[in-house]
C-alpha cells in the first residue's frame, strides 16, 4: 500500500476529485434556479424538429451531474500517477478540465434551450451557450496544460542523472574523453545536388512519376551520405552516415594511434563512405580530418569539420587507445 501511495501526486489527486464534484454541484444549483421555467418532462435528446426523447427534471439533472463527475474523474485520474511522463500528465490534466467543462456545457445548453417553453418538443439546444461554453472549455484546458506543475518526485530519470554525476565526480576526465560531433559537406554541394538532381526529377515526374520519384530518392540518399555523426569515447570510435546508419566502428583496443590531417577526398576514393586499398573513409569533404591507424595495419579517415575538432578528436582517440592497452596489460596474468 505504501508503494502505491508513493506513485500518486496528492495535490493533483485532490484537484482531480474535487473539481468535477464542484462542477456537478454548480450545475445542480443552477438547474434548480431554472426549474420553474422548464417544461415537465424535459427533453434529453433532440432532432431537427425539436425534442425527441424526454425524462423527468430530476432524472435529467441527476444524470447530467453523474456524467460530469464520472467522465471528469475518468480523465483527471490518469494525470495523478507520477510514473507517467510530465508532458503526458499535463496534457491529461488539461484534457480532464476540457471534458468536464464541455459536458457541463452540453447539459446546461439543453436546459437553457427549454427555458420558457411549455412543451419540450418545441425545444432545441441553446447554440450560444453551447458555442461559448465549448470555446471556454478548450481554452481553459490549454491554459491548464501550461499552468499545471506536477508534484516533483524522484524518478528513474533522476537515478540515471545522479549516476552520471557520480561517475563524473569519480572520474573528472570522463567528460573530456567524450565527443559528439556532426560534420557535413559545404552548402554549395547541396545546391549542386538540388540543381542537378532534384529539379530534373521534378520535370521527369511530369512524364514518368515513378522515375522522377526514383531520381529524387537517389539524390536524397546521396545527400544523406554527406552528413555524418561522429561519436568518440573511451570505448572507441563510431561514425553514422546521415546520422543514422553506422558505417564505421573502431574499438579503442584496435587503435594504434590517431592524428589530425588535412586530407583530399580523392586520395580515399571520393566523398561519402569509401573503402580504398587498406583505408576505410567517411569523408564529407576535403579538409580537416582525423586519420586513425589500426593495429592490424589498416587506416580509417573521417572528416572532422574544423582543425580544432580534429585535434580534439585525435586526442580523445589516443587517450582511449592508451587506456585500453593499459587495461589489457593489467588484466594479463603474470
Please outline what is shown here:
The chain is an alpha+beta fold and 334 residues long.
The number of helical runs is: 9
Quaternary status: single chain
How would you write the strand order of the largest sheet?
7-10-11-9-8
Which consecutive residue ranges, at least 5 long each, have pLDDT under 50?
A: none
- Average per-residue pLDDT, rounded, comes to 83
Biggest sheet: strands, sense, closure? Answer: 5 strands, mixed
Sequence of secondary-structure elements? HHEEHHHHEHHEEEEEEEEH
Number of strands: 11
Task: Estimate the helix proportion, in percent.
Answer: 40-55%
The Cα radius of gyration reads 34 Å
Using the alpha-carbon principal axes, give the shape.
elongated
In percent terms, what proportion of residues is strand? 15-25%
First-residue to last-residue Cα separation: 55 Å
Number of domains: 3
Structural class: alpha+beta
Describe this structure in words.
- This protein has 334 residues and is α+β, with helices and mostly antiparallel strands.
- The chain folds into three domains: 2-147, no CATH class; 176-183 and 226-334, Roll (PH-domain like); 186-223.
- Helix content is 52%, strand content 21%.
- It contains nine helices and eleven strands.
- The chain has helices at residues 2-6, 10-34, 57-76, 86-112, 127-147, 156-170, 187-207, 209-224, 307-331; strands spanning 42-47, 50-55, 179-184, 227-233, 236-241, 245-251, 255-263, 272-276, 279-283, 287-294, 299-303.
- A five-stranded mixed sheet has the order 7-10-11-9-8, covered by helices on one side.
- Strand 4 (227-233) and strand 5 form a beta hairpin.
- The two termini are 55 Å apart.
Amino acid at each position: 500500500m505504501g508503494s502505491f501511495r508513493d506513485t500518486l501526486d496528492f495535490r493533483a489527486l485532490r484537484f482531480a476529485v474535487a473539481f468535477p464534484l464542484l462542477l456537478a454541484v454548480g450545475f445542480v444549483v443552477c438547474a434548480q434556479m431554472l426549474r420553474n421555467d422548464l417544461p415537465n418532462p424535459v427533453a434529453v435528446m433532440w432532432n431537427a424538429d425539436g425534442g425527441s426523447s424526454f425524462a423527468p427534471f430530476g432524472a435529467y439533472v441527476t444524470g447530467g451531474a453523474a456524467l460530469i463527475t464520472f467522465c471528469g474523474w475518468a480523465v483527471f485520474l490518469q494525470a495523478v500517477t507520477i510514473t507517467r511522463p510530465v508532458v503526458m500528465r499535463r496534457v491529461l490534466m488539461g484534457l480532464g478540465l476540457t471534458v468536464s467543462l464541455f459536458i457541463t456545457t452540453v447539459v446546461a445548453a439543453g436546459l437553457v434551450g427549454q427555458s420558457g417553453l411549455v412543451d419540450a418538443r418545441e425545444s432545441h439546444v441553446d447554440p450560444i451557450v453551447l458555442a461559448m461554453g465549448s470555446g471556454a472549455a478548450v481554452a481553459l484546458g490549454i491554459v491548464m496544460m501550461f499552468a499545471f506543475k506536477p508534484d516533483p518526485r524522484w524518478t528513474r530519470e533522476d537515478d540515471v542523472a545522479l549516476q552520471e554525476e557520480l561517475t563524473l565526480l569519480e572520474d573528472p576526465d570522463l567528460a573530456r574523453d567524450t565527443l559528439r560531433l556532426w560534420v557535413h559537406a559545404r552548402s554549395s554541394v547541396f545546391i549542386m545536388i538540388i540543381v542537378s538532381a532534384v529539379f530534373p526529377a521534378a520535370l521527369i515526374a511530369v512524364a514518368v512519376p515513378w522515375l522522377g520519384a526514383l531520381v529524387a530518392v537517389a539524390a536524397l540518399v546521396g545527400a544523406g551520405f554527406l552528413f555524418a555523426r561522429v561519436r568518440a569515447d573511451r570505448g572507441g570510435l563510431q561514425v553514422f552516415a546521415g546520422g543514422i546508419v553506422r558505417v564505421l566502428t573502431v574499438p579503442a583496443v584496435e587503435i594504434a594511434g590517431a592524428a589530425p590531417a588535412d586530407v583530399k577526398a580523392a586520395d580515399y576514393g571520393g566523398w561519402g563512405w569509401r573503402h580504398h586499398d587498406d583505408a576505410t573513409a567517411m569523408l564529407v569533404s576535403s579538409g580537416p580530418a582525423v586519420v586513425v591507424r589500426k593495429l592490424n595495419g589498416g587506416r580509417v579517415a573521417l572528416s572532422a569539420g574544423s582543425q580544432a575538432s580534429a585535434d580534439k578528436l585525435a586526442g580523445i582517440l589516443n587517450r582511449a587507445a592508451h587506456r585500453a592497452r593499459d587495461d589489457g596489460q593489467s588484466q594479463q596474468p603474470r
